[in-house]
Amino acid sequence: MYDFIVVGAGPAGSRFARAAAERDHGVLVLESGAIGEPLACSGHVSLDVWAFVPETARERLHQNDIYGARFHLGGADSRAYPFYKETVVSNAIDRVGLDRTLAECARDAGAEVREQHTVTAVTEGSDRATVTANGPDGTEQFAAKVVCGADGPRSKVRSQVGLPEPDELLHGVLGFEPTPDSQDFVDVHLTVPGFFAWRIPRGEAGAEYGLAVSPGDDAPARFEALVEDYGVDIERRCSGAIPIGPPDRTVSERTFLLGDAAGQTKPFTGGGILYGMRAADVAARVLDPDRRSTLYRYEHAWRDELARDQRLGRLIRAGYSLPKPVQRAGMAAFAGEIGVHMDRPSTLFSVDQLRAMAPWR
Ligand SMILES: Cc1cc2nc3c(=O)[nH]c(=O)nc-3n(C[C@H](O)[C@H](O)[C@H](O)COP(=O)(O)OP(=O)(O)OC[C@H]3O[C@@H](n4cnc5c(N)ncnc54)[C@H](O)[C@@H]3O)c2cc1C
């Protein structure tokens, strides 16, 4: 019997698998497809990401340095309100490569990682959890003391053990235009209901266009309007769900949810790569597979880690729906150099940020 079975080899699952294996736990990871595919993510992350991957992978994964964002209240030709730092704020990275690298780290630490294994059922018993998966050799069953549901926004594990859903699942669409683009700024358009559309320069990989909206708000049609406005031809497009607002409970008898499955995302961007990996480190630190009560420690500990930033993130997102004149006044007042860390909106109230906003700067 394994100590942990991790369902899903995305950033959250692989990070947890690595950290648990490094603590000498027996870990099996089951991934439904090939790791990293299909792509459904911008891979736009703060520099914190580099703490989670080996130094040797950095050059391979890095695509472009970003210094800030130009906010727009209209389309491609509308006035831009720049928010920036003098130093690099974030990177566009190869997201497929990131997933492969993290899974490799888990393997190197001793975790067994099996691709092409789709988990179809999870049952929780008094002495074990049983995980059923369809793989190349047919249906197989595996036993573990604890199951980690790191299987993304539409988590099968979550529904199997009867845990509640996140508050919202936005529909994100993105596409790529291949002309190399190494600009310093991403563009953010507050032109779709309740969220935003974006353009990300990705260096040699070209430029990415995307947006996210509620499922009823026709993301594909809005995406077509966005790329038409920019006058670009999109070569490759993809889509995915973005959970916003964690479920009320993320643990059951022998199972815990992690990453998107647990709604561990930034409410104002939908970004979840770093929040999921931070929560994975919390899980590895507090969970003891022989003591089920530690699942409840995890429930509190990951919320303690992310709650403040998620709360402030919700407030920032509310700003996307303010009347245009209020948004215009706010942008004009706050545009310029910023001190805030993109994964930690709580730094909005830091000394660095106040200094950046001071009139004498
Ligand atoms: C359009 C879009 C753009 C985004 N852009 C960004 C961004 O720029 N920056 C950022 O930080 N975040 C971004 N995100 C969010 C980010 O992609 C997620 O937060 C992140 O992938 C969550 O990681 P995870 O490991 O929890 O889940 P995932 O990455 O979704 O991994 C889950 C894994 O589980 C596997 N799986 C699913 N079901 C099963 C099953 N039944 N059995 C076995 N395996 C299964 C899947 O194949 C997958 O590999 C974006 C999301 C979207 C949709």
Automatic annotation (TrEMBL):
Pfam families assigned: FAD_binding_3
NCBIfam families for this protein: GG-red-SF (TIGR02032)
Domain FAD-binding: 98-165
Protein name (database record): FAD-dependent oxidoreductase (Homolog to geranylgeranyl reductase)
Single GO term (MF): FAD binding
Gene3D superfamilies listed in its UniProt record: FAD/NAD(P)-binding domain (3.50.50.60)
